[in-house]
Amino acid sequence: MQPEANFKRGIYLYVGRAKNGLQGRIKRHLRKEKKTFWHIDYLLQKAEVQEVWIKRDFFDECRTALEIKEILKDSSFPLKKFGASDCRCQSHLFYLAERKTDLEPLRKKLSFEKANIHGNQV
Ligand SMILES: [Zn+2]
After folding, report:
1. Count of Cβ atoms closer than 10 Å to residue 121 Cβ
2. What is the pLDDT along the chain (122 residues), one digit of tens a residue?
3. Are 75 and 14 contacting, i.e. CB atoms less than 8 angstroms apart?
């Protein structure tokens, strides 16, 4: 992936996992000032986070990525291997040109809770 990639206008979904400390990881993702380290950091420099979905128990991020691709048939992979450099997935980042699709059914189907990112309760 090119870190300086230009991201097209649209909706992005990213699947990630925090082995230790979900709260800390989400807070880091929401913070603008930080060193760019992960692929997602480059996107978040330009993007505005609208929602964070969480699952507190272990989940398989690769399986979740496959399920998202199956359910969101009109999504595409904007950047190959984004967030997926050490697995066999094509990408852990999904792109939708516009938010025509209601994403709530997807969230429920995948059994994720919506985190309260505006009230600082992550
Ligand atoms: Zn994967």
Report:
1. 8
2. 565 678 899 999 999 998 888 999 999 999 989 998 889 999 999 999 999 999 988 789 999 999 999 999 999 999 999 999 999 999 999 999 887 778 999 999 999 999 988 765 55
3. no
For ligand 1, the distance from its centroid to the CA atom of residue 68, given in whole angstroms, is: 12
| Distance (Å) from CA 119 to ligand 1 centroid | 31
Query: pLDDT digits over 100-113, tens only?
Result: 778 999 999 999 99
Q: Ligand 1 centre and the CA of 74: distance in Å?
A: 19
pTM over 0.85: yes
Q: Which amino acid is at 82?
A: F
- Cα of 59 vs centre of ligand 1, distance in Å, is 12
Among 95, 93, 117, which residue's Cα sits nearest to residue 9?
95
Burial letters for 89-120: b for 16+ Cβ neighbours within 10 Å, e otherwise?
Answer: bebbbbbbeeeeeebeebeeebebeebebeee
Q: How far is the CA of 113 from the centre of ligand 1 (A)?
A: 21
